């Protein structure tokens, strides 16, 4: 793994603290969502990002506000890392009118176009084309904006993955394929689903650079992302980053009470490689921060999550007939 | 007034709109050479044969402020991109609570008449009518192509523009000015008083021919083309049925859950038009089979003026009720 050698080089306290803060925000958000889902105050389907926080955080830290990302069904982490508002996210999960989608989307369809988050996607492999289009738009406008498509190991078996890898390469688009290989496609292990050991090897087939990094090492992820983003901004075309990581929880929260079909020792060994204390401990080791400072960050985050819950609970549920709005965009929308 | 063909109407409308607004981007496997020459390969993009990713790219472009046009060729090829059309393009405005607009025009051909067999000929518009979030356009004349394509290109939503494969050479009068045909406005192609015939796409021409035959037998036929299926102008159809008391719906697509059955359903659900009926409505549709190759079988698979004329006579004799 390329990332294993990367240490806390060129200590930049602000940057590392920000990475730590983002990862921990995702963690605390997801913990609360899992708990609220279990007690049935959040309906529907929820896919937890716990364990994979370094992927979204490391990639999005390499992006500007005007860069675009396209996310997946497991999208809360991407939203938070790209700068979406926790209150409006939580309100959407609670099905409230103040949610990002006014309660029409829920967990799998959160989008915030104002921060370049072009949407989570309920269809595995459904978002590749949208990212291709966003990257093409950046190129046609002559900007140095880039687009990132997040997807899992599972999506790399979809036809759209291959079509869009090819199209991005043929058109030399500023697009980064950010593959979160969490080793399980739904409940099927990666070795039964993917013909190659490292999915990044597939990049060669589409004539683009591909690297495999430790997806639990936020610095390794960020380094790879910075390199890919720099290439994309300067006309070098698409890149592929495979991040080897692990989700701590079942494919969906609905499966949690039914039990995890993955080997216990596998789950435990990955939990020992928790990306958040991995970074925090390194920062303490090099005297960049203290445990007390990190605890203060945690307290602040917990307060923000509580605020988000309060915001959601105080927001109104939609009227049933609100369901009829927005089938078409209002301007030029007939019917 | 000048006459142009159905195919010319498509090309010149695209050219005119592309001149008007640089945000239009065309993608397809067979870009029109004149457009490549005029607008360049950045805007007129010859794509790999990758329907899913190209439709997906159109969604991403539209969400980024562009106005993409995707020519998928034949409607049969578009099924490869069904997820992108049905799960992505159609739902994205709604799912995201209307926070972004997705002006996308998807063009594809429908219909039989060219002996290309089942995988190159189909009329699937009713499938897409079942997908909220898509506007469904079905022009039958060069005039309607021009007016409706302008409206489609200027709309802010995903629009599927279905042209008929066998109408390319159909000629018709088209004015030079910047006219548009609004969505949701049916046209009475011929006025009449005894029977209302609602016809779709190429069946408009066949129905007009049948109407001429009927005229010589003293039967006055009103021919209506809804022109757009979503949104659909059911008022014009119902008002006509109130006047004539008889309804024939002609569509070459399969009969099950089709646009024709939807139109008949709208008429009988409306008390005013239902109570005006002097005979049960009759549908003249495709045979409900994949389109066969050999010419005698292909002709059998879709309606023609003879079958339409027979249906008109049947409702005139009130046979509709009994044949149910």
Structure write-up:
The complex is a heterodimer of chains A (335) and B (324). Helices cover 42% and strands 9% of the residues of chain A. Chain A is built from twelve helices and seven strands. Chain B has 324 residues and is of the alpha/beta class. Chain B is 44% helix and 20% strand. Chain B is built from 14 helices and 14 strands. A seven-stranded mixed sheet of chain B has the order 3-2-4-5-7-6-12, with helices on both faces. In chain B, strands 9-11-10-13-14 form a five-stranded mixed sheet, sandwiched between helices. Chain B is globular and about 60 Å long. The chains are: A alpha/beta (335), B alpha/beta (324). At the A-B interface, helix 5 and helix 6 of A face helix 3 and helix 5 of B.
Q: Determine the N-to-C terminus distance of chain A.
A: 55 Å
Low confidence ranges of chain A: none
Mean pLDDT of chain A: 95
Order of helices and strands of chain A: HHEHHHEHEEEHHEHEHHH
Number of strands of chain B: 14
How big is the Rg of chain B?
A: 20 Å
TL;DR of this structure?
The complex is a heterodimer of chains A (335) and B (324). Chain A contains twelve helices and seven strands. Chain A is α/β, with parallel strands linked by helices and 335 residues long.
Give the helix/strand layout:
The complex is a heterodimer of chains A (335) and B (324).
Chain A: H1 13-38, H2 53-60, E1 68-70, H3 76-82, H4 86-93, H5 128-140, E2 147-152, H6 159-170, E3 175-181, E4 184-185, E5 188-189, H7 190-193, H8 202-205, E6 210-214, H9 218-233, E7 239-244, H10 264-271, H11 275-285, H12 291-314
Parallel strand pairs in A: 1-2, 2-3, 3-7, 6-7
Antiparallel strand pairs in A: 4-5
Chain B: E1 3-5, H1 6-20, E2 24-28, H2 33-43, E3 44-46, H3 51-63, E4 67-74, H4 75-78, H5 82-95, E5 104-110, H6 125-129, E6 135-137, H7 142-154, E7 158-164, E8 171-173, E9 187-190, E10 195-199, H8 203-216, E11 221-225, E12 228-230, H9 234-244, E13 247-251, H10 259-269, H11 271-276, E14 282-285, H12 295-301, H13 305-316, H14 319-323
Parallel strand pairs in B: 2-3, 2-4, 4-5, 5-7, 6-7, 10-11, 10-13, 13-14
Antiparallel strand pairs in B: 1-8, 6-12, 9-11
């Amino acid at each position: 793994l390329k990332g294993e050698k990367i240490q806390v080089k060129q200590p930049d306290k602000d940057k590392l603290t920000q990475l730590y803060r983002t990862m921990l925000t995702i963690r605390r958000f997801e913990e609360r969502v899992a708990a609220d889902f279990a007690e049935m105050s959040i309906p529907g389907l929820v896919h937890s990002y716990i364990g994979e926080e370094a992927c979204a955080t490391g990639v999005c830290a390499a992006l500007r506000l005007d860069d675009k990302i396209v996310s997946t069904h497991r999208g809360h982490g991407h939203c938070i890392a790209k700068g979406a508002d926790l209150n409006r996210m939580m309100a959407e999960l609670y099905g409230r009118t103040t949610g990002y989608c006014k309660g029409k989307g829920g967990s799998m369809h959160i989008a915030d176009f104002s921060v370049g988050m072009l949407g989570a996607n309920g269809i595995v492999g459904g978002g590749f084309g949208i990212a291709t289009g966003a990257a093409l738009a950046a190129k046609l406008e002559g900007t140095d904006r880039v687009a990132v498509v997040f997807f899992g190991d599972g999506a790399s078996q979809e036809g759209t993955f291959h079509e869009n890898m090819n199209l991005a390469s043929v058109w030399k688009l500023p697009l980064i394929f950010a593959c979160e290989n969490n080793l399980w496609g739904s409940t099927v292990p990666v070795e039964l689903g993917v013909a190659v050991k490292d999915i990044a090897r597939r990049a060669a087939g589409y004539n683009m650079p591909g690297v495999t990094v430790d997806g639990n090492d936020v610095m390794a992820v960020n380094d790879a992302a910075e390199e890919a983003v720099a290439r994309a901004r300067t006309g070098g075309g698409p890149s592929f980053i495979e991040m080897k990581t692990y989700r701590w929880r079942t494919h969906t929260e609905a499966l949690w009470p039914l039990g995890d079909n993955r080997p216990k020792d596998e789950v435990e060994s990955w939990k020992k490689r928790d990306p958040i204390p991995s970074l925090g401990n390194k920062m303490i080791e090099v005297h960049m921060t203290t445990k007390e400072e990190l605890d203060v960050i945690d307290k602040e985050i917990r307060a923000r999550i509580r605020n988000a819950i309060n915001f959601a609970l105080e927001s109104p549920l939609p009227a049933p007939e609100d369901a009829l709005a927005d089938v078409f965009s209002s301007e030029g929308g007939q019917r | 007034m000048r006459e142009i063909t159905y195919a010319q109407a498509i090309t010149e409308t695209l050219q005119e709109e592309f001149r008007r607004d640089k945000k239009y981007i065309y993608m397809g496997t067979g870009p029109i050479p004149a457009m490549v020459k005029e607008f360049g390969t950045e805007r007129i993009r010859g794509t790999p044969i990758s329907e899913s990713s190209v439709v997906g790219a159109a969604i991403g472009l539209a969400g980024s402020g562009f106005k993409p046009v995707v020519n998928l060729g034949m409607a049969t090829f578009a099924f490869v991109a069904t997820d992108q059309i049905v799960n992505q393009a159609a739902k994205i405005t709604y799912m995201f609570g209307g926070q972004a607009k997705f002006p996308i025009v998807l063009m594809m051909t429908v219909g039989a008449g060219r002996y290309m067999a089942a995988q190159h000929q189909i009329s699937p518009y009713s499938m897409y009518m079942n997908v909220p979030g898509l506007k469904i356009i079905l022009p039958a004349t060069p005039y309607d192509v021009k007016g409706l394509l302008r409206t489609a290109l200027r709309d802010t939503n995903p629009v599927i523009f279905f042209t008929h494969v066998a109408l390319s050479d159909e000629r018709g009068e088209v004015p030079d000015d910047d006219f548009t045909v609004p969505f949701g406005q049916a046209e009475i192609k011929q006025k009449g008083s005894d029977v209302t015939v609602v016809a779709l796409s190429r069946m408009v021409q066949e129905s007009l021919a049948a109407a001429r035959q009927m005229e010589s037998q003293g039967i006055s036929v009103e021919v209506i083309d809804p022109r757009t299926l979503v949104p659909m102008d059911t008022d014009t159809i119902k008002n006509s049925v109130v006047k004539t008391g008889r309804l024939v719906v002609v569509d070459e697509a399969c009969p099950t859950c089709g646009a024709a059955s939807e139109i008949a359903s709208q008429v009988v659900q409306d008390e005013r038009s239902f109570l005006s009926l002097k005979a049960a409505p009759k549908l003249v549709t495709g045979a409900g089979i994949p389109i066969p190759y050999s010419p005698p079988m292909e002709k059998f698979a879709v309606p023609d003026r003879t079958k339409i004329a027979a249906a008109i006579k049947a409702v005139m004799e009130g046979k509709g009720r009994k044949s149910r």
